[in-house]
Amino acid sequence: MDKRALIIGATGIVGGNLADHLLASGDWHITGLSRGRSALRDGVESITADLTSAESVQRALSGKQFTHVFFTAWSRQATEQENIRVNGAMVRHVLEALGPSGTLKHAALVTGLKHYLGPFEAYAKGSVPLTPFREEQGRQDVDNFYYEQEDRLFDAARQFGFGWSVHRPHTVIGFAVGNAMNMGVTLAVYATLCKASGAPFIFPGSAAQWNGLTDMTDARLLARHLEWAATSPNARDEAFNVVNGDVFRWKWMWSLVANYFGMEPVEFDGTMRPLEDRMQDAGEAWREIAARHHLAEADIGKLASWWHTDADLGRPMEVLTDMSKSRKAGFLDYQSTPDSFIALFDRLKTLRIIPS
């Protein structure tokens, strides 16, 4: 195979779905680089390294040759300055180790819509551009580790002569366990807890998200977008938004999620009720549910990311994305967001992550 992919973060929601997609195509040899704490898919070669250590990455990648590298992981730090330092270094370490081989053709970086919104700690503090967000709107005047990662990517591409692409999904829906940013699984766990206890299925977010238009990104569509950009001349050295292609309001989607789990949706009353505040003691309840239904994972911390779901659903502004640039360049894929949620929930039941 002349296409040899290295996936940084191959066990995560984006990297795992990318690995599945590339494996299914049959055209790629795939390697995943991680700390080795989670098993990789069958058919994916494993390399273990500490991405924050240049020496560890250099040692792990010495003598390895890849044609494509996909950055689908980040390390959450206490402050944005630390995010910049740590996550920028992770990109730099990998590209400095791979670049001199001369075999690298393309490097893809997955960031997100915080490119336009600013980081979690600075939401709406800058001059947020008008929606729908478009790639030409540029950077916010705030510290943002996405910008540092981009700059390290651009510097390495110039130095070593490979192409690049940057991918900016909205909230990603997809299967992953032990992932720190996973709204779909978090909502499935929340709904299961509510149903088991008889508690109302209350929307935790803001009025802006309940009433406003929004969109999301299926991890499977993002995987196809990543492969397309890595192999299409039209996508070389470009940044792209990537979303499913439909739009919705949470006041409508909340009913669909509630109905799937056999519950009545609760009308939003204008009061934010963040999940992280309300789910502090949910671990024991989940262990009881897992034991009763013989579920595969009894540790709620490996399934639910309350803080991240709160951040997405609590945004005080409309978040909507334009896909025209990808469409014009030749990526015409589409995914129904309701179907994304249903497919995920069905898979979680099949794998006994949530009760049938």
From TrEMBL:
Gene3D superfamilies: NAD(P)-binding Rossmann-like Domain. It holds the Pfam family PRISE. Residues 64-355 form the PRISE-like Rossmann-fold domain. Transmembrane segments: none annotated. InterPro entries: NAD(P)-bd_dom_sf, PRISE-like_Rossmann-fold. This is NAD-dependent dehydratase. It comes from Caballeronia zhejiangensis. The lineage of its organism: Bacteria, Pseudomonadati, Pseudomonadota, Betaproteobacteria, Burkholderiales.
